[in-house]
Amino acid sequence: MDPNFALEALEHENLGNTVYGRIADALIKGRLAPDARLTIRDLAQSLGTSVTPVRDAILRLIQDGALVQKSARDVRVPRITIRRYKEIRQIRLELEGLAARESALKADPAAIARLRDLIARNEAAIAGKDWLAALDLNQTFHFALAEIADMPVLRGILYRLWLQMGPLIAESYQAGGRIMIDHHYAVLDAIARRDPDAAEQAIAQDIGDAGRIILERMEQREPEATAE
User: Fold this and answer.
1) Residue 9: is its pLDDT beyond 70?
2) How far apart are CA 66 and CA 85, in angstroms?
3) How does 165-188 read in b/e, with b if 16+ C-beta sit within 10 Å?
4) What's the pLDDT score for residue 23?
5) Collapsing DSSP states into helix, strand and coil, what is residue 79?
6) pLDDT of residue 175
7) Dihedral (Cα; 136, 172, 47, 121), 10-degree rounding
8) Which of the listed residues 30, 76, 90, 145 has the most CB atoms within 10 Å of its CB?
9) In what order do the strands lie in the sheet with 74-76?
10) How deeply is 80 buried, as exposed, middle or buried, from its count of CB atoms within 10 A (0-12, 13-18, 19+)?
11) Any residues with CB less than 8 A from the CB of 157 and at least 6 apart, and which?
12) 46-60, 139-153, 165-179, range with the lowest pLDDT
């Protein structure tokens, strides 16, 4: 057996994971809009890699429900239906509520300081109309709850949900403005007081209020949003 075979396979796997992570990160942080068309060649060029790891990453993201293949040459960010959005939102309410509860029981001073810093930086980004940074900080805050809760399996599930939700949240974030982070203060306060019930309620209100903004925008384009 060629001794270089294992090394080449490992390098290919690592490159594939890196490409997957870069595209997934762009989806989660809303840098790829709903219905945006992706081409393997353009992505490979922008990432400075060959088409093979990009093709593999695209296939994985299609399996994750984060991308949809319309035809052999047409891969797009899906435009989620209202029905699908409501299902994902209901799942998020349960799972992110669990993350918030566990965070309230496990957070140490460093974790609380981290959440406080994320909120402050998000406020500054919104005030400066830096929407890309604000979206990034919003997503980081939500994922931080699962990390503070020390629940890596839960974080992995949320990661896949946010692959689908990221573009939709980004589309509505500027319209929502401070509504998108108002309840983060209540989440922080509940965690600092070690009150799991209040933490769960606050994150539910956060998802609910943001959800109303998202649904309003989806309903404005009802024929497109509801088409399967």
Assistant:
1) no
2) 13
3) bbbbbbbbbeebeeebbebbebbb
4) 93
5) coil
6) 82
7) -20
8) 145
9) 37-38, 74-76, 68-71
10) buried
11) 95
12) 165-179
Per the listing, tokens 């001073």 go with: 109
pTM of the full structure: 0.84
The pLDDT value given to residue 6: 39
Helix-helix angle 182-192:131-148, to 10 degrees: 20
Pairing mode, strands 37-38 and 74-76: antiparallel
Chain centroid offset of residue 101 CA? 20
Helix segments in the chain, DSSP class H: 3-28, 40-47, 51-63, 82-106, 109-127, 131-148, 152-176, 182-192, 196-220, 222-225
Instruction: State the virtual CA torsion across 26, 28, 30, 33 in degrees, nearest 10.
Output: 80
Tokens of 74: 């047409």
